[in-house]
Write a sequence for this structure.
């Protein structure tokens, strides 16, 4: 069994991922004070929190324990269908996240630059470099995406941002490192 410190670190990793995911949706779609549901496959959850959660029962127990540490989100709803888990963050929690992240400009700047008709990978990289010069940009051959960009220091932002540029403009998808590796 893992240590209490490892468990608390895992709770923090999950909370950070939930906050970052909901913040991205709020930037993309606009803020509304309503419940938002996030879905995790058991294996993705296991890699995200860096704890062994080899069974549905263990993953469910972890989420129930985590919910007790996340009272600031309000009454979180948990459910699952086989190995797919749903975490429902209530309106109170989405408001908390909005207030917490409303001064964060990275995603706002990224959305703004992607809307420009002449957006290039160089423009996108400028947005990333405002946070840190230490980014990794890789050209992806023969894939759905043209480029993947991420920070060398995952504590800044652990996501892989995958960009495509074409006649329809520029767009991106964001994945956890694990999920990116499973689709790539």
């Amino acid at each position: 069994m893992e240590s209490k410190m490892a468990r608390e670190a895992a709770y923090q990793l999950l909370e950070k991922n939930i906050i970052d995911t909901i913040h991205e949706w709020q930037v993309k779609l606009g803020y509304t004070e309503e419940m938002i549901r996030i879905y995790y496959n058991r294996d993705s959850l296991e890699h995200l929190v860096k704890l062994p959660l080899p069974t549905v029962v263990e993953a469910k127990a972890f989420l129930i324990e985590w919910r007790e540490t996340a009272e600031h989100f309000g009454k979180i709803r948990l459910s699952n269908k086989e190995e797919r888990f749903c975490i429902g963050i209530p309106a109170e929690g989405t408001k908390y996240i909005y207030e917490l992240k409303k001064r964060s400009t990275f995603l706002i700047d990224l959305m703004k630059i992607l809307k420009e008709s002449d957006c290039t990978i160089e423009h996108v990289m400028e947005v990333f470099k405002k946070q840190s010069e230490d980014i990794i940009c890789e050209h992806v051959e023969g894939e759905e995406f043209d480029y993947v960009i991420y920070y060398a220091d995952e504590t800044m932002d652990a996501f892989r941002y995958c960009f495509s540029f074409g006649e329809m403009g520029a767009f991106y998808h964001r994945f956890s490192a694990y999920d990116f590796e499973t689709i790539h």
